[in-house]
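Aim 2 progress update. The chain analyzed this quarter is reproduced below.
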Amino acid sequence: MSALRTMTSLAVGALAVAAGGFGVAQAGASPAPPPPSIAEIADHVRAMGGDSFAGLEVDPDKKVITARWHGSVPAKVAEYAAETPEGIRIVATSQAAYTRAELQVVARKLADSAEGRALGLTEVSVHSDGSGVRVGVTADVPSQDEQRELARFAGLPASAITYEADVNLVNLPATRIDQD
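Predicted structure tokens:
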């Protein structure tokens, strides 16, 4: 009778495996977690960034993350990059002119300022390479004099601020309902 019981157990296990189950030997085992995505790996690198972190860029097609620091790359980041997690190449460089935190302070200062409102700023964002900030404006790009004045106010060289006219905004002339 024990031989019949053994054969039945083997048959049930084989059917479970064929049907996509875990089989008798793996009953109760939890499946392995899925491998991390490139976005999750990028978030991990960002979290290891430290005070000198400037920014990162992700190219999912090439499976490359480029991370930049102002100053030296933290040792733990260099070690992690050497592991090539999930086949993702991490390029860690110390080529950034500013830290992300420094540029975020500048971005908030510009966005909240009368100087920024006078130029029609619609948004201010930090360049992911740590080179400066991008300023969106409602109208044409400010004159050279206005750019120098805004850079002086921001505490950055004029070359660290790029301007882009916001083409998504439509400036319509004001109209009144009581006019014909």
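The first strand starts at residue 53 and ends at 59. Helices lie at 2-18, 38-47, 75-82, 100-111, 114-119, 144-154. These observations will guide the mutagenesis experiments scheduled for the next reporting period.
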